[in-house]
Amino acid sequence: MAENSFKTIKLKMEIEIARLVSIFRRELAVSYPNDEKSINGSFDFWTFIFIESGTAVITTLGNKYIINKGEIVFTEPGQAFSITPFENGNASFISVSFYPKSSDLNFFKNKIIAINNFEHENLYYALKCSHRLYEGYRVKNGVSYMQEKASDQQPFGSEQMLKLHIELLLLSLRQRGIGESKEYRINSFAKQTRQKSITQQIQHYLEEHITENLTLEQIAKDNGFSISQLQKSFKAEIGESIIDYFIGIKIERAKLMISEGNLTFTEIARRLGYVNPNYFSRLFKRRVGITATQYSNL
After folding, report:
1. Which domains does the chain have, with CATH numbers?
2. Which pTM value belongs to this model?
């Protein structure tokens, strides 16, 4: 009777982690001016950043882009970066740095990816495993490292589980094959920053010229912008037109002057650049809901 024989299958390892550099979670808050994670220099390992809460800004190679809650972004070897909270918000993130055994990670180079539940769970299980293995992330004599716990405190198989959870996350991301390009975010951030700069310039200009009866043409000319560029940027940032905004700050100034009680409404209107006080009276009632006389009696 012949013996049975078996043909084995050698399993292909598409993405494999060779060595871990670091894994940690960190809070970012604008209340801490120096609260920034930076890697200054050229290193031959990969890093990915997952935004756990809030919104963060990543700066790399002189470019900035926004990454939102639930998104993950990779920085390849040799790429320095820093991460800060966006505007006046807070954020938290998880960072994982590693050396891959295989070098087939080029797919991740220019991608920002929203992770799914499976990937999210594997990332948190990896972080949980790291808590069983390490005391924390340390820097001593210029050397950064993960401080290991005593071997008798490390549960069986925790290192392998940590490795596998990171690999499952990477494999799932690669298998789904989706993501938004960093270049799009970089261009969007630059546009947004430009709009904010233009808007702040115009707001300051309007405050300084609140006593004048400005036209859109004059505002654009004095500030060195085209009318279309000015209107588009201001509306996108503020949500209303420049002239409507200008009327609004004049109304607020008029309310303050009325409350002080030193001037008549005709004098207030003229000080705010309105030759026809009746026209300004109509504007005031339309914006405030009551007449200037009724407002002064409040």
Report:
1. 17-178 (2.60.120.280), 186-296 (1.10.10.60)
2. 0.73
